[in-house]
Amino acid sequence: MSNENMAELLFPDVTQLPADIYSLYPPRNLSSSALVTRFAPSPTGSLNIGGLYATLISERLAHQSNGVFFLRIEDTDKKREIEGSIENIISSLLYFGIHFDEGPLFSGDDKGAYGPYKQSSRIQIYKVFIKHLVRNGLAYPCFCDTDDLQKIRISQQNLKVTTGYYGRWAKHRDISFQQAKEEISNGKPFVIRLKSPGSSDRRITYHDLVKGPIELPENDQDIVIMKTDGLPTYHFAHAIDDYLMGTTHVIRGDEWLSSVPIHIQLFETLGFRIPEYGHIAPIMKQVGNSKRKFSKRKDLDGTAEYYKEQGYPGMAISEYFMNLINSDFEEWRMTNPDKSFREFIIHTHKMNASGALLDMNKLHDISKDVISRLTGNQVFDHLYTWSKEFDSELYTLIDRNKEYTLNILNIGRTMEKPRKDYSKWSDVLPMIAFFYDELFEKDVLSGYKLPTNVSLDVAKEIVLGFCKTYRFNNEKEAWFHEIKELAGELGFAKDMKQYKANPNNYKGHVGDVAMVIRVALTNRTNTPDLFDIMKVMGEKRVFERMQRLILS
């Protein structure tokens, strides 16, 4: 009866029982093989690259098994919450192609029948279960303040025993109803602690989805499950939520490995089925000859937002992560070049138990492959959306020249082996800027980048001769024949073999002539196919640019 009185003293306004809550969260109607996974971030800043990696694993495990993947926001620590973080998390997931079946939306509403999906909206649910634990003598109020806890710690250190709030050191573990009532009447703040049944002499074993069998000391600490402000701790809230929402598998960073004994104890004390846990090592960064973890403070490239701002396609990041998740993905990709990475089945036991290295060169190569598989229209759509947010100059150009830009992006894209020019959207403008007259004019103000063996006067002679013979509607073979003939007329070898046999007999070779025409059009020495460039630029622009060099 004293436990019942204690529960009513601490939570007089909580009238529901756990059974009332269970009725609102019936078991999910899924097959036995379907997995329910989640991503449960705190809204304390930008989503980091490690969180994105773990989230992709969770999403793939759920969806490849025809299960459910949901987003839950763990926002009970309001002091650390940063405004806009929830929106950032949602937009980042969408950008990287990680779609959640349930969770909070931009509108503030929830999608799904197992919400609310923000912990700050679930406080009353937690209190129902905390009251239930107190009623059954499994939790109790603790009125220790900072000074009390410090005195306990000093005594333990002097005796050289494990520090913490446990066993005989748990001052309020057996507090009476009258004592608690008196403390509350005096306005003394309190927390609620779990009365741990554990002992540090015993060990627990569990099978980690990634690391395999693991043995850890049992938890003997009377952990706090409700803070003085009435909010639950992470440990307690996540146990309630994962059970009610039907979570079957949890993928998270291995910094949480030491919390497994606490979490297992919580689920067992509450009488809940324990989800399966998989702990992954952090993604590492190469710095010089060594590897280290990404730093939240130092490494801008440690956030998902960085890769979005740089313009890496979301699907390229996900594709790259698949290589880190399971090493046999690369072989699968080689035999299935046209399939979506989502058709690859991942396995947790094949994951790298040590820290995977984020190889930027590998990421660039994969991103180029991904972009090369897109149609010109798809590239344009991605570029248009990205530049609208991150590159106003590019956005203005392509918005004003939509058809022209689409034709530019299609160069080399319809071949059997498409060009792989871009690894990210921020690469595009520097590579195609010469197509736009205003940027080209600005570039040539500092002079033309002619071959070293060709003077400006000779270049003008080449361009003038080209203008006389150039026919816009010529096929490529006829077009190049005219350039070879022009080369011969101006003292250049018509082919490289001829030039190499007697280099002193010529001003240069046909390649030099073509290079001058390329520079006149683009002021670049390395571009896509020259014939294709002319076709996209159109006859009028080609002649205008030729005339500009002649008059320079």
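^ that was protein a. below is b, sequence first then the tokens
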Amino acid sequence: MRDRRDTLKNPEQELRIFRVRAFLAVLTILLLTGLLMGRLVYLQVVQHEVYSTRSEKNRVRVEPLPPTRGLIYDRNGILLAENRPTYNLTLTRERVEDLDATLDRLEELLALTPEEAEGFRIRARQRQRPFQPALLMSDLDEAQIARLAVNRHRLPGVEVEAQLLRYYPDAQVMAHALGYVGRINADELKELDPGRYAGTHFIGKTGVERFYEDVLHGQAGLRQVETNARGRVLRELGRTDPVPGQNLTLTLDKELQLLAYELLDNRRGSIVAIAPQTGEILAMVSAPGFDSNQFVTGIDFASYRALQEDIDLPLFNRAIRGQYPPGSTIKPFLALAGLAEGVITPEKTINDPGFYQLPNDSRRYRNWLRWGHGRVDMERAIAVSNNTYYYSLAHELGIDRLHEQMSAFGFGQRVGHDVFGESSALMPSRDWKRARFNQPWYPGETLSVGIGQGYWQVTPLQLATATAVLANRGQWVRPRLARRIGDDEVPTELPDTPDDIVISNEGWWDRIFTGMEKVLSGQEGTARRTGVDLEYRMGGKSGTAQVFSLGQDQRYNAEELAERLRDHALFMAFAPLENPQIAVAVIVENAGGGSTHAAHLARAMTDAWLLEEEAPDVEEVREVMENDTGSVAGN
């Protein structure tokens, strides 16, 4: 009988199945091997250039090289703004895996306060261009640098960079004129040229630093470096050097600037001095000042709030933004306008009973001397600062001609060539009042303008500029702060300079100057005490700006008023009379009469400029002011 196992097993069939399976397995292996080899060929041969470039990028990095910011000097080559080496902490977000964890480590390592940590995180998350490092902290100390170096392996994307940081040696005195640089913010980043500002963390924010940013900044460079897996630089492969910013030489005289600041003695006010023939601003001080170096590295919130809340407003640039009634300082300008318009002659006189009345008006517009000056001509009206004469003159001129004539001297407009943030102040007019208040102009308002009160507002820079134009006998030279950019001189004749003021009789300038000289040297001059022992001829005019208006029968008594309600003291002057070398405008807030305070400061400035070997002693000037009882208070 046949074995049943033979009927259950078919060797031939099993052999065929084995061969088919073996064939399929070999075929699969061959196909997979072919695919693998094909992919290898594709990557190694076809895509060689692509992956070779990617590989190169993994070990070759392009780094920006920020330019060195140009230095700023005074007219005598004294350094006003320099660059000091420092270490900054930066973070490149694209190289950081966990931003929050990295920031936590940094805050712990640097022992930041909660306030500093908040600013830290804000700067880390500010929008930056791809692979552009964000500046987290400036001016690291040695201990901080050491802690960061030890923990470098835990901080991918974090670098400590050696850079030059702006520093102002005379920050308090120069803060408003020079301005300062600060960190580039997100809004500024959108507007800046990415190539030119690559790697740059600071930009001019105010003053000269802001106006001449394009000149001072320069052009960024770059370098190619080879790095290891941890990002550490192994060697430099190529470099395009940055172009440093140009140095800037200003017209300011540091010693004169320091003197002006010391003369103000921390009182609220401003002193501006200009060389009339060239328009060079010799000094431009606003007091009180502030430490501009705080803003370079980033001022802390508490310090900034203290500056903002300071009642004396140290951040406010009074020299170019402070707006004050010019008071009697504008009387020489009005006299010239009356001559030019044929309203008066130098010999014409009026009788001053101590007040002026408009036709058919019972209101009395008072002279500062209540019993009047009697018979007054133009020169005497300037010397004694007679209000009645100028009420009459303003009424005859009318606001339209008065506005036109005063605008020719620069009132009501920005006068500086390169003065960033300057205010135009206000030269009122009929059209201005209609647009501002929807009201007509009244004759009484013209009288107020005629003695520098009412709506009329000037800045110290405007008043100094108008004084310089007057000293130049009508020739306009626009004020400027830059004397040289690099090695190139800034021209005296600048574009959009206003037209010169031309009058029909050149002798009228001399008559105006004579009246101004009598202010200081005449027996009745309001600032006669200031003119004692003058070694040169000087013309000036005192002024008193009211902080609030008095009623018709009210009398001003400074002793009864709070200090900040007292009148502002003003004085404008130029010297020497025959060949003016300096024009000065002084405003001291709430100091009372200009002849008993501001005039002495103006005299000290002209002495310092014209008598270099006999520079005034500040303490002596203060003593003279304290003992000055002979000048006219209130004018």
